[in-house]
Give the backbone structure.
Amino acid sequence: MTDDPDLIIETDRLSRRFGDLVAVRDVSLRVRRGEIYGVLGPNGAGKSTTIRMLCGILDPSGGQGRVVGYDIRRDAERIKERIGYMTQRFSLYEDLTVEENLTFYAGIYGVPRGKRRARVDEVIADTGLAPRRRQIAGTLSGGWKQRVALASSTIHKPPLLFLDEPTAGVDPVSRRAFWAEIHRLASGGTTVLLTTHYMDEAERCHRLAFIFRGHVLDDGTPDEVVARRHLAAAELEVDDAAGAAAALRRHDAVDEVEHYGHTLRVVTRDADPIALASQLLGPVKDARPSRVTVEDAFVSMVRAEENGNGQAVAAAGGAS
Amino acid sequence: MKAGLLRSAGRIRVVAWKELIQLRRDRLTIGMMVMLPILQLCLFGYAIDTDVRHMPTVVLDGDQTAASRDLARRMAATGYYDLVGRTDSYDDIGRAFRSNTARVALVVPPRFGADLTRGRPAQLQLLVDGSDPQTVASATNTAASLVATLAGEQTAGAAQRAGLPAPSGPPVSLELSVLYNPDLRTAVYIVPGLVGVILTLTMVMFTSMAIVRERERGTLEQLIVSPVKSVELVVGKILPYVVAGYVQMALILTAGAVIFDVTIVGDLRLLFLLASLFIAGNLALGLFFSTVAKTQQQAMQMSFFFLLPNILLSGFVFPWEGMPRFAQFLSQGLPLTHFLRIIRGVVLKGAVYGELHDEVVWLALILGALVTMTALRFRKKLG
């Protein structure tokens, strides 16, 4: 623990056990003020458990952490006043109007009675909720509910916002609008920590942490995380896609082969995918390089972990 | 400290405000809260007569002879009357009725024994607590047949001694007085009891459902992450239901007075004050259910499961004195049993605090147990 004032979240080997199950193991995170920080991982990796410990509603079994300057074990109540929290369930009161929901959360978060109305008006204007102001929340579509939930969790202008899978089950258009809103909040100085398993969303974050089976595989900016895996990708036009894919998969350097119609996308590690393809498949009709994504890096890391190279990966991540 | 309390009060207020809006929009719940009392008031207008035994009985013996003592023994021997004591005045009888220590009183006039032996007509008086009509029916029927037997024996004895045919006039007669509900109307008995049943239902079912609903819809998790404390949340959520409970109580008593002509004899302020113990006990139970039930449906099922023994065992429909010992033992643990005695005592008999002290102690004990149990289960942290 460094007590660096620039760090809004800092944890040191945070762990949580439920009986025999280790849900979170030695998670050390550092999130700077104003960042959009993504926590990525499959379902059950320990993302939500980590967030709950950071919010002060779940005691860690081991390790320590500071959030908005307070110890997560001792000062949970102080932390709660200074954070916003939203889950994929958009915990709204479905029988209250949009305005009533916002007024309720304003009251709960201690916005003084005299200022509540002005603050609710302000949030409604900022988030474009004006046309839905008096609508019962239960009758809103998923995208609108998400906006109201986000407005509710920022009603008290928290410096830190936790979003637990905020875009699960929301249509693509609403997701884009949501991300625009996240960036607007971040540019206004709000730090955002969110979990997701949509890898395209991971690339919209300033920094990332990959969590798998309760521990952090790697963290850094999306570019850093991708670069550390030494991956390359290419798209190949082939006649016999199934046969070609099978031949490619047998090679050690090949991390992943994906089908896109007649096109194969191949990801290799420490090897040139186009050269490898012509070596294995003979002449290829068309081959072009493809951008390596965060998803490629994540899949590669998880594969390595599942094949028992976990220690090496963790060490590599930690050393950087 | 003061600023903290103010913030607390503010959060309680905003929770209660939200709960009231939700309650107002929930037509079904509002409908149930208003319709249930009225529906039940009409439904329970019909009495279910049962044979009541072991009615606590006091004797005001103005005679103090072998004949009067023999009469009391014979009454006890029927199994319908349990002699619980002797009294010296009519005032004592009133006190015994109001404090529920007796439901029947036998008044033996002076010179009863002498009149009997001389074959002169003797007058007995039987006083019965009419706030429970079923008691009255059992008490009067049994006493009447007992007196008839007594009269027959006396007549036969006197006639035999004289060697003459038995006289036709009854040498012993019984004058029957029913107190508190002289017309033996079921409504008089049902209306105050219904207040207790409806309050049980409202406090247990609606509050447990209101809290489980937050968990079911995920809003509880949102609140757990917020600065609102669990006690603030609970107080804010149940306040509207406490108000609703008192409104229902007033509604039933008013409807009872207007429709069924059930006049309130005692002190309403005492009743409303003592009702708070009963309400608090049921609220604690509702909260306890909310910690066990995972869905609103489960909360409702648990509430009905709890309501059934309340209706059957508390003395709401079936007289407590007529129950087997085991059922009586169980019913002592139900808040409703004691509240029914309090509300019938105050509304029908004009009982004062001193006469209800035992029931208040029972209610307080049950409340303490329920609050402890609930506090142990109610945790704000998820872990």
Chain B has 14 helices and five strands.
